[in-house]
Design brief:
This protein is α+β, with helices and mostly antiparallel strands. It has three domains: about 90 residues; about 150 residues, Immunoglobulin-like (Sandwich), CATH 2.60.40; about 140 residues, Sandwich (Immunoglobulin-like). Helices cover about 20% and strands about 35% of the residues. It contains five helices and 19 strands. α1 runs antiparallel to α2, α1 runs parallel beside α3 and α2 packs antiparallel against α3. It starts with about 25 loop residues before the first helix and ends in a 22-residue tail after the last strand. About 30% of the residues are buried.
Length: about 450
């Protein structure tokens, strides 16, 4: 028997498999798949950068804040980075289309990153209305140290009801006086300017002064000066709290300006700041003139202060008298009084508070000869504060229509007053005076003569 070699013996327990062929994908199908991937990557990267550009546009136009634009750009860049990772993973196919898409994608993401850097480090969007400086301090080194506050319109449009908020580090703003170096009338023929203010305090007791500018022209600048009348140190922060580009209504009253304040925090206000236009000097005239005729009018005059009966808070009451001036008798006198101190106590006032702040009085006749038997005519009013009050009057009689502003202040143990009376129709001032100890303010300058005792 012939010997069997291992090679000639049949394999036992092993299955012999035929050789296999590699699975091949048609080249056309692979190319279509990679081109679709390339276009998807390219479109996503382009959308990422366009999204960043759109957010930049929104931020520059003021529709979104800088922080929101940064968040949007960050999301766009993150999406671009994810697409790079996807492209690198797909690059294993080594298709030319993927290589081109990857290169363009890297370029787009680089441009998006540059855009992000530009918006973060470049110029910020233009604020429509700004105030400068936003912080200033008085060190007490100069007597009556003065700063100027500049309010600017930067966007080339009209701004209405611009509100400037000044917050003091002190508890009171009584040591500060304010002025408008370039005043403008609130309306044609009005002695009041289009900038008015309120003295307030916040919830912590710090002094706050709110200024209201009726209208600012495009690219205009308004100035408010602040003078510190004390030698102590002081600090003020200022900012714009509100404005609108839509015209707002204004009062038709040329003697009193009315503006709507929009507060961004609870405030308690106890006095207003009114700026008046300087009276132009009369033209020189050497021709002889007839002696001026004395005008007859009446006004309301505080004459008596006493504790309010039955008041546990020791409130003060006062008697308002009808004061007469001139040679003629007056008939059919009517008075509408508004206690501005009550309205400013809590803003905005409720309808009930508005009703409680008003009173209506009348008198059939007021003689020039005096009040006669029974004493002068008048009425009682209870003050909401024990040291100051402010009243607006609308007065009329058979031959005239008047408007009066009355302020009273308690200095030490004595009450002092200041009165401004004007003709309602012609706006001509008829009476302007203040007691010697009444502190000068924006409505009553130190040059006014003392108030005389009226003929009741």
């Amino acid at each position: 028997m012939a010997d069997e070699t291992p090679a000639s013996r049949p394999a036992q327990g092993r299955e012999i498999m035929p050789p296999t062929e590699p699975i091949r994908v048609p080249p056309q199908s692979l190319g279509n798949q990679n081109w679709k991937l390339a276009l998807a990557v390219l479109g996503s990267g382009l959308a990422s950068v366009l999204g960043g550009a759109f957010s930049n546009y929104l931020q520059a136009r003021g529709f979104v804040s800088v922080g929101a634009a940064r968040i949007f750009l960050g999301i766009s860049l993150l999406a671009g980075i994810v697409l790079i990772v996807v492209a690198v993973m797909a690059f294993a196919a080594k298709d030319r289309a993927v290589k081109i898409a990857l290169g363009i994608l890297v370029l787009l993401v680089f441009l998006g990153g540059f855009e992000t850097w530009a918006i973060i480090n470049g110029p910020k969007r233009i604020e429509a209305v700004t105030v400068d400086p936003q912080h200033f301090s008085f060190d007490g080194s100069l007597h009556k140290e003065t700063y100027s506050l500049f309010v600017r319109e930067n966007a080339g449009m009209e701004a209405y009801s611009v509100q400037v908020k000044m917050k003091f580090a002190q508890k009171s703003s009584s040591d500060f006086t304010f002025d408008t170096p370039s005043p403008k009338p609130i309306m044609e023929g009005s002695p009041l300017t289009d900038i008015q203010g309120l003295r307030c305090s916040d919830h912590s007791g710090h002094a706050v002064v709110m200024f209201w500018i009726y209208r600012m022209e495009p690219h205009s600048t308004r100035e408010i000066s602040i003078t510190h009348n004390s030698d102590s140190t002081a600090a003020i922060d200022s900012n714009i709290t509100y404005f609108t580009t839509k015209p707002v209504p204004r009062t038709g009253d040329r003697i009193h300006a009315t503006g709507t304040f929009h507060f961004n925090e609870p405030l308690t206000c106890n006095g207003d700041i009114m700026f008046q236009l300087p009276t132009p000097p009369a033209p020189a005239d050497s021709s002889p003139r007839p002696p001026p005729q004395q005008v007859t009018f009446f006004y309301i005059y505080p004459g008596l202060y006493f504790p309010t009966p039955g008041s546990n808070a020791e409130r003060t009451s006062m008697v308002m008298y009808f004061g007469h001036h001139g040679p003629e008798d007056l008939f059919n006198l009517k008075v509408i009084m508004t206690d501005a101190s009550r309205l400013l106590k809590h803003l905005p006032p409720t309808s009930e508070e508005i009703i409680q702040a008003k009173t209506y009085q009348s008198l059939p006749e007021l003689d020039a000869a005096g009040f006669g038997a029974g004493g002068p005519a008048g009425f009682q009013w209870n003050l909401i504060d024990n040291d100051h009050a402010e009243f607006n009057f609308e007065l009329s009689h058979r031959a005239g229509h008047l408007r009066e502003l009355l302020k009273v202040r308690k200095i030490g143990d004595h009450w002092n007053k200041a009165i401004f009376l004007a003709n309602f129709t012609s706006k001509d001032p008829l009476l302007a005076c203040r007691d010697t100890e009444f502190p000068p303010d924006e409505s009553f300058s130190a040059k006014l003569k003392p108030c005389e005792r009226p003929t009741f």
